[in-house]
Amino acid sequence: MKWITRERPKIDRIACPWLIKKFIDFEAEFIYVPYDQVLEKAKELDAIPFDIPDVEYTHYEEQCTFDYFVKKHEIKDPAIFIIADIVRGADTDRHEIAKESAGLWAISAGLSYNITDDYKLLETGILLYDALYSWATHLYQQKHLQNSPFENLLHEVYNKFLKDKKNNAKTPSWVKDLKEIIQDQIDAQFTLDLKKISSELDLNPSYLSREFSKHFEDLNFGEYVRKQRIEKAINLIENSSYTLTEIAYMTGFSDQSHFTRIFKAHTGNNPSAYRRKIRKK
């Protein structure tokens, strides 16, 4: 069977083909085309479209296309349930769902950046998900340090040091500088990058990532930036005549469906319902 979706895949459009090949359609053929050609080419090539709006295999509420494939085809493998959480967290920028989601996003984005041929990217991505499946099946409970008493001891000492240091710590000077950087971006399209910010602040990126939540409302970097994006979007909805698509772009969201999901998660309403509610007041 032929399956067709948008070009330039990163998360769902690599994870779903891997899932299809492994559990649903062993002879599957995958086609990547520009977004505005998917439905037309699907009819022309007798292919099943996926991971675009208004087709069966797509996002539903807070779940991504990978989740729908698992549900639709009644896949009961426990390892797939683990992977589904990771994929959902990576694909919807909700890295709190699974701690591995941030890593999957980073690796997937890097692969997409390095490999411009979508079919070569899929071939490489299949290897990535094969490895992830082996980990989820056999190594999910295993920790890197558990077989090394010496490294484990160092890890415990380091954690104790951080705990003791936290109790006596003052707010570092970089916190004020970072708040100003983020504030400067609120009135422009969000292009915040932790590595670039670390360089601007002259801080190690790992240190900044680890220490960030202590000074920013117990939120990690991605969560805090998303919160700022939504607050900016709320302000634009309440005080401007921009369309919701324009607001999504102005606040740094790559597409309106992603914007809608994140907005609803933060406010309890989708953007259009929120705007209607405001106009009734």
TrEMBL record:
It holds the Pfam family ChrB_C. Transmembrane segments: none annotated. It comes from the Bacteria. SMART domains: HTH_ARAC (SM00342). InterPro entries: ChrB_C (IPR018634), Homeodomain-like_sf (IPR009057), HTH_AraC (IPR018060), HTH_AraC-typ_CS (IPR018062), Tscrpt_reg_AraC-type_HTH (IPR020449). Keywords: DNA-binding, Transcription, Transcription regulation. Residues 176-277 form the HTH araC/xylS-type domain. This is Chromate resistance protein ChrB domain-containing protein. It comes from Flavobacterium quisquiliarum. The lineage of its organism: Bacteria, Pseudomonadati, Bacteroidota, Flavobacteriia, Flavobacteriales.
